[in-house]
Q: What sequence folds into this?
């Protein structure tokens, strides 16, 4: 049976990693080994769900991506040498802070460089100017891994700002992680390790160019013909071997399998479909929004009014 490693980075990664481990419903969760990475000791996993490696001497990033950038690559390499990657890996991090948004892409870089199967789970936030800027720069950093390593990047992405509360966002995230874990295993009939591995690196086994590929899930109740965007690969798992069918005809790569006995959600079939490049287009719009906000901010926070008064050499007004 394959192994699953979860690298939970920064505050959001650690919070959500613990929430998933403590409340997730997937039977495949028991295969997962969690480890946290952070620059601060102020985010401990609830119920001590897993151990966290802390960057020595650091006291958090304070949403400044430059704060711990120098020691970050060595910190990541050292953590990976102690907490070895699994057969499959999930890197879970928030893009809007500093720590997760830097450590996450660095772990991706290390694993992709060694051709180790990995999925990024990214949590974005566009509430403040700093968060939108960090989210954009985190995505730029992820895309740079695609470019420099010539690798597909498979990811799931939840934008906090589209949910009314953090709790609601977290519920969606845990649900999607549960679904993801159903696919990151070699325990289903027919869909073996290399099948799943190749679905996560489609450019290595087909002629498509590497891209940032967002995961979408569909079950048998969904109208599969309504799949939007530009699907490039899919893994389809069926409850019944005779039900395997030609869903998603025309994608570059597909894997079919039969859901292992009684496991997975109570559906007739479950599909993980990778979209070729739609998220990049969304992020390009986000960059335009970011530039707009910066323009507004330059006017709004241009200069503060002065209070004046005759002061001595220390600036004290008597
Ligand atoms: N959905 C969700 N988002 C979270 C959670 N915790 C933090 N966030 C979001 O993640 C973003 C980044 O915060 P953190 O993950 O705490 O930041 P960090 O990666 O630790 O980085 P620094 O603390 O700046 O070094 C924030 O904008 C929050 O919106 C969480 O439990 N759930
Ligand atoms: Mg933090």
A:
């Amino acid at each position: 049976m394959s192994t699953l490693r979860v690298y939970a980075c920064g505050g959001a990664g650690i919070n959500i990693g613990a929430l998933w481990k403590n409340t997730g419903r997937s039977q495949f969760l028991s295969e997962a080994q969690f480890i946290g990475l952070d620059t601060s000791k102020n985010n401990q996993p609830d119920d001590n769900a897993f151990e966290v490696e802390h960057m020595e001497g650091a006291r958090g990033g304070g949403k400044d991506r430059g704060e711990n950038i120098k020691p970050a690559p060595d910190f990541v390499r050292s953590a990976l040498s102690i907490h070895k990657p699994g057969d499959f890996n999930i890197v879970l991090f928030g893009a809007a802070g500093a720590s997760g948004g830097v450590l996450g892409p660095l772990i991706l870089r290390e694993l992709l460089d060694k051709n180790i199967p990995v999925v990024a789970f990214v949590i974005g936030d566009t509430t403040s100017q700093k968060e939108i800027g960090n989210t954009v720069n985190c995505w730029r950093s992820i895309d740079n891994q695609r470019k420099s390593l010539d690798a597909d990047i498979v990811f799931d992405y939840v934008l906090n700002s589209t949910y009314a509360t953090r709790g609601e966002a977290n519920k969606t995230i845990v649900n999607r992680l549960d679904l993801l874990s159903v696919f990151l295993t070699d325990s289903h009939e027919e869909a073996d390790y290399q099948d799943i591995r190749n679905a996560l690196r489609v450019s290595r086994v087909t002629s498509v160019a590497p891209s940032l590929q967002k995961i979408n899930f569909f079950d048998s109740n969904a109208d599969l013909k309504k799949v939007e965007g530009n699907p490039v690969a899919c893994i389809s798992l069926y409850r019944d071997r005779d039900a395997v069918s030609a869903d998603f005809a025309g994608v570059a790569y597909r894997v079919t399998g039969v859901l292992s006995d009684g496991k997975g959600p109570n559906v007739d079939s479950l599909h993980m479909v990778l979209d070729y490049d739609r998220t990049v287009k969304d992020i390009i719009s986000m960059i335009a929004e970011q530039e707009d906000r910066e323009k507004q901010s330059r006017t709004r926070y241009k200069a503060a009014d002065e209070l004046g008064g005759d002061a001595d050499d220390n600036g004290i007004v008597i």
